[in-house]
Amino acid sequence: DSPDAYLSVKHDQVVTLIKIYEKDCEDYDKVKNDGLTEQSNFLQDFSPTYKQLPELDLRAEILSKHIYEQITCDRRTLSLLGWLIRNGDSLNRFINRHNSTIEINRLGNKEKNQLLAEYFGYYGPNNKQDKTYGVTISGIEEYLDSCIYFSSQLCKELSNSADKIAKKIDSNALTCTPANFDIAVEKGLMPDPSLFSEFEDMFTEKESS
Fold it and tell me: Which of 111, 117, 162, 178 could form a cystine bridge with 124, CB 3.0-4.6 A?
């Protein structure tokens, strides 16, 4: 599969949702000290999104079958596969939680100030605080970045493995065309590699003193 198959989950719907929520939180922080009365412009203008998000279709069984049965891989490659699958499962759990929450809110006919309280996690009319939605958005963003990082690294490892296999069969064999993530980089879709330094440290050989 092309890298687009692995990066497809971070498409416009997901990115837009995260950006809208971050912008709304920024606007909310600016006005929350005003008390957010019924007359507040922020409350009047607030309109939560009810857009459902698609799950990540990782095709983990097919990917695992190819890697375990057809390719001789090192420890890092197998670890990348395992981490990708686990993070994909976690991402889908948060996406399902998000979809369930907004569907309940959409059908619940709740007052706007109650919706706003649940959206931003502050104390609402019932004097209760619920931060579920904010935590859900953060979870989607975190596991989304993890899936993108591990899948991009896995693409590189599989490309290198293909080259090694080809060279063993024919020393004059052409190298495999590697996955190209240049467009994703240009669009700012790739996460900061430093966020995954602990993972990479597991496969870094320590220099002998």
Answer: 117
Say what the pTM is.
0.78
Closest CA to 19 of 110, 177, 144: 144
Angle at 24 between CA 103 and CA 126, to 5 degrees: 60
What is the mean pLDDT of the segment spanning 102-114? 79
First to last CA, the chain: 43
Going 8 to 81 to 83 to 76, the CA torsion angle's sign is negative
Going by pLDDT thresholds of 50, 70 and 90, the confidence category of residue 91 is very high
Contacts 24+ apart (CB under 8 A), 182-186: 184/3, 184/7, 184/148, 184/152
Specify the pLDDT at position 139.
Answer: 92
Give the per-residue pLDDT at 5: 44
Q: Which are the contacts of 35, defined by CB distance < 8 A and separation ≥ 6?
A: none
User: Which candidate, 133, 125, 147, 184, places its Cα nearest to that of 22?
Assistant: 133
Residue 147, H or E segment: helix 132-169
